[in-house]
Structure formats: structure tokens, C-alpha cells
Design brief:
2 copies of one chain form a homodimer.
Chain A lengths: L5 H6 L3 H5 L6 E2 L3 H7 L1 E6 L2 E5 L6 E4 L1 H11 L3 E3 L11 H21 L7 E6 L5 H14 L3 E4 L8 H11 L9 E3 L5 H9 L4 E2 L3 H7 L2 E4 L2 E4 L19 H5 L2 H9 L4 H26 L3 H9 L13 H4 L1
Parallel strand pairs in A: 1-5, 5-6, 6-7, 7-8, 8-9
Antiparallel strand pairs in A: 2-3, 3-4, 10-11
Helix pairs in contact in A: 4-5, 5-6, 8-12, 9-12, 11-12, 12-13
């Protein structure tokens, strides 16, 4: 919206051409970004007004403008503009916020220009309150979307509360539409959410962790900055096919991070993305074979790395 | 030497295996690095004592230890330990420094373990003083090396003085051995030095420039941070085959640098290395065809980019 700007990206041929990315692109509505980045934001029935963190100028984001921006970018999947309800919130606050998002969802549906192969997803809100989540699902399914996201989670409520919301919400969603859990998560989060019927995720964890030296592996989470890797000639994850694992030792990756070489973040980001892709591939194969639980158990079986005996392991151990 | 340490790299199978690099590796002796990085260094006839910038511990680097370190790393080309004479220096200072380096060169020759396909290079010193450079060449050729480097340049003397030293030095070097100009340079530096008989270079310019948004192209030097690239759908260099040029626009590269995405440095580093490789390939082809000057002129013909009307263009324009 601000940088490089939707109209500019449109003039340059859209995001697919700009990035030279031939896969599908899902864009967020900007609502969460305004909430987390912008200063001096003001929410009203019509939309949100905020000051740019780039240059301090004032901007207005409405459901209609959000959908237009995503069309200009060339998104394959457009997300409805919603208000990401803060956590914690009272049930009354969560209800008010959710109902505003539902009115905005209807406006997004009206503003969206249908195109073959493109879709608009609605976002379920309602905090940790089962009745509000159910009300939100009913409102969205009455409008009708190409897919349904569960939003407002991974904001500090914890894995148990998040799974609780999914237990109550996912069964209410249409079984023939993709279900997308926004902003989640660790490998254990993914396994637990897939178990509860989620199909899609987005998260910074694999890339941000890769930049800071954390690797997700079949043996658990490793911190490559840890001195115990300094002489370790073993690969990060012997079952992984990524370049970090096929070409290099843990000692080399440790050295790259200690020396602040950008090849360290590059290799570890590649690895983490490969690990997440492999995990989802294995879970899909398990589902197709009618053997999800064995696939989930196999994915978690080796998670005993000592670097971070980790929140990720919570459900696995429970 | 300090991090990760030569013995550690040796235990991990040497640099080629550590980096998974199948090409030849040339290692520097550590002399220049001690001069430029270390605190509290003290030079004597036997070697140099310095304090580590990593942990403050004291270390001793001698000609023998430098050669041993490079053997432990698995270098294909080992460089003699020398003292990089500071610039400016009086002729007397340059003479004293050069003669110490020549005595160290003889000790490096004695310490070097001959192995098939591996070589030791001597380094010509003597500042900007022709008689000292000639004396240094005589000393080194009397010892005998697999290749000869010209050192002590690109330390602030300027391109004209550097070319002056090459004019006086390179003709004295054996024609059947590689001649290597250390720490140089810009594309114009390379062309001028190849014109004077240099075969090999090392320099941080293509990678460091790439990280900071400077691109060397057939059209000259571009600064991708410059706002005039923000809407430019053209490739960086239409004649270049690197991914930055084949897949993306200048506008995209500009965006990556403005947004501080690490993909910007990655793509521009790749491009600059490709440009340098292409330049040297074209110069080699010119030499083999007996048409070096047309090849040099063709390489410089397009250097009119407005971002940095550049010191690089000095010789081309002269």
C-alpha cells in the first residue's frame, strides 16, 4: 500500500511479474499490518485511518480500498479487511470487533471483482469465545467465500487456547472450501491444527528463525550459534534434501553465523522452508492414506534436540 | 587463523569440503589482515605479534606459521607472508619493509610443502619506487615461485601511480608464470592492469558493492537506491545472463534495497560477480584473438551511466 505502492506494482505488471514468482500469491488485507505497525490509527465504521511509518503521511484503508489494492497487486487469493481483535479482550469487546469485521466482509465481497482462478477469503473472528466464533462463521457462510480463514489467533493466547478455538470453529466451516489458519506457527502448531482440519498456514517463523540461526529439523530445534556445533561435521538434518544439509556441516553453518556471513541466514532460511514443505507433504500423504496420526507421530518422533527443549514439543509430549 | 581456526578447518576436511567449493582456492597470508584489523601489532625480524580483535588474546604469525595455516586450510595457491608497506612511506621505509618481506619470502619457500597442483606465490613490494620494485622482483625470481603477485598497491596511491608501478614491474616478471595484482579493483582498474600484463586479481568490490546497492554494468555503475529506478521496468543490464537481470526489473531491485530485503544484496552480488567474470572472459578472448584493445574498448564503450560518473571512467576517458 505504502511502499512500493499498489498502483506502482500494477504499472510494473503485478506482483507475479515483479517478483518473478509463478506460484499462487495470497495477500493480506493490511488490517493486521496497520494494527501492528502504524502509528496514530483510528478505527471507525468506514475503515481505518493511520499515519505511515515510512514518511508520517496520513492514509485511509477501507474494505473497498483493501480489495482494490489486492487486485492491483495481482493476488490469487484476496483476504477480507478485518479488525484483528486484540488479546486479551472482554467478550463484549470481541463481539463488537467481530461484528464490525463481518460488516466489512460483506463490503469486501461486494467490492471483489470475480476472475477465473482468483478468490476472496473471509476471516472468522470472535476471540476465544465459542459463541462469537460460531456467530462469525454463520455470518461469513451466509455471504459465501471461496475460502475461510481463522483469524485473531497466535496473538498471545497460547497453543492450548488456540487449539480450543479450532476445536469449536473448524467443524462449522464448509468442508469443500480451504480452511486457513492465519499467522501460525511452529511445526507442533501446524500438526495440531491440521489434526483439527486446517489446510493452509502463513507464518514468518521459518524465515525469521532461519535469519537468526534457529533450524527446525527432524531432530528438533537447533540453535546454530551454540558453541557445541563448532566442530560438528554432521549435517543439520541427514534426511533433508536442501543445500544446507546436502552440502555443509553444522560446523560450517555455525561458523557462518559467528562470522555474520549472510550465507548463514540464506542457507538456514532455505532449510527451514524445506523442512516446513516436507512436513506438510508428509501430513498430506498421511491424510490421503487414511493414516494421519501415524504421519504426525513420525514427524514428531525425533524432536529431542537439546538446544531448545521447546514450547513446540508441548503437545507432542502431552 | 583465529576463527574458525586452521586446525579446526583441517579436522573438518579443509576449506574445499567446509565450503563445498570445487574450484581452486587462493588464501592470503594474513599479513594484510593483521595490518588492517589487529590491534597492538608488533613487527620484528621473526614475524608479527598481535592481539586478536575477537577475544583480545595474543598471537604470533611467522612466515612458517602462515604457510602451515594455508596448508591446513587446503589452499591451492599459498601466498607468502609479507609486510604490506604503508602508503605513503619514504623510500628508506619502503626499502627496509621490502627487504624484510624478501627474507620472509625465502623462509616461506623453505616452509612450503610441495604438492602436485599446489603452488606458492611470491609478492613484489617496494612501494612506488621503481628501483625497489626491480630489486624485489630480482630477489623473488632468484628464489623461484609458481606465481608472482604485485602487492602494496590499491592502498591510496591512486590509479595513475598504480599503473606506473605496473609499467615498471610487470615486464620484469617471468612471462611463463601467473601475475597477480592483489586487492584490485574496479572494472577500469582490471582493464588497465590486464593491458599491462596482469593475469589475476582479488577484490571485495563486486561483493561489497553488491551488498550496498551498487551495480557494475555494461552501461556503467548504477546505484539501485537512487529513486529514479523506482518505476524502471528495464533490466539492470540487458546483456547480462544473471538472475537479477534475467528475472527482474530495476524497479524491483530498487524496492528490495529500500525495503532492506536481503534478496537485494544477494541478487546484486550475483550480478556483479557475473559482470566481472564476463569482463575477464571478454578480455581473455581479445588477447587470444590478438585483439585486446578492441575488446577493452568494447567493454568500456557503454560506461555513461549518470549515477556515478565515476573514477572508474578516468582511464577510459583519458
Amino acid at each position: 500500500m505504502l511502499r512500493p505502492g499498489a498502483e506502482r506494482v500494477a504499472r510494473l505488471g503485478g506482483l507475479h511479474r515483479f517478483m518473478d514468482w509463478r506460484g499462487p500469491i495470497l495477500t493480506d488485507s493490511g488490517g493486521y499490518q496497520v494494527l501492528s505497525l502504524a502509528e496514530l490509527r483510528r478505527m471507525d465504521e468506514g475503515g481505518v485511518t493511520f499515519r505511515s511509518h515510512v514518511d508520517g503521511t496520513s492514509h485511509r484503508l477501507t474494505p473497498e480500498r483493501s480489495v482494490e489494492i489486492q487486485r492491483l497487486l495481482g493476488a490469487d487469493v484476496t483476504m477480507c479487511l478485518d479488525e484483528c481483535t486484540p488479546f486479551p479482550a472482554t467478550e463484549a469487546q470481541a463481539a463488537t470487533s467481530m461484528r464490525l469485521s463481518m460488516r466489512w466482509a460483506a463490503r469486501c465481497r461486494d467490492a471483489f471483482v470475480p476472475r477465473d482462478g482468483h478468490g476472496l477469503f473471509g476471516i472468522v473472528q470472535g476471540g476465544v469465545h465459542p459463541a462469537l466464533r460460531a456467530e462469525s462463521v454463520a455470518a461469513l457462510t451466509a455471504i459465501g467465500f471461496e475460502g475461510y480463514a481463522v483469524g485473531g489467533l497466535a496473538v498471545g493466547e497460547g497453543q492450548a487456547a488456540m487449539f480450543g478455538v479450532l476445536d469449536g470453529t473448524v467443524p462449522l466451516l464448509p468442508a469443500d472450501r480451504p480452511r486457513y489458519l492465519m499467522g501460525v506457527g511452529t511445526p507442533a502448531d501446524l500438526i495440531g491444527a491440521v489434526r483439527r482440519g486446517i489446510d493452509m498456514f502463513d507464518c514468518v517463523i521459518p524465515t525469521r528463525s532461519g535469519r537468526t540461526g534457529r533450524a527446525y529439523t527432524r531432530g528438533g530445534v537447533l540453535n546454530l550459534r551454540n558453541a557445541r556445533h563448532a566442530e560438528d561435521a554432521a549435517p543439520l538434518d541427514p534426511a533433508c534434501a536442501c543445500p544446507a544439509c546436502k552440502r555443509h556441516s553444522r560446523a560450517y553453518l555455525h561458523h557462518l553465523f559467528k562470522a555474520q556471513e549472510m550465507l548463514g541466514p540464506m542457507l538456514l532460511t532455505w532449510h527451514n522452508l524445506q523442512y516446513y514443505q516436507d512436513l506438510m507433504r508428509d501430513l498430506r500423504a498421511g491424510i490421503l492414506a487414511g493414516r494421519f496420526e501415524p504421519a504426525a507421530a513420525a514427524a514428531q518422533a525425533g524432536w529431542d534436540a537439546p538446544d531448545d527443549r521447546a514450547p513446540e514439543a508441548a503437545e507432542a509430549a502431552a
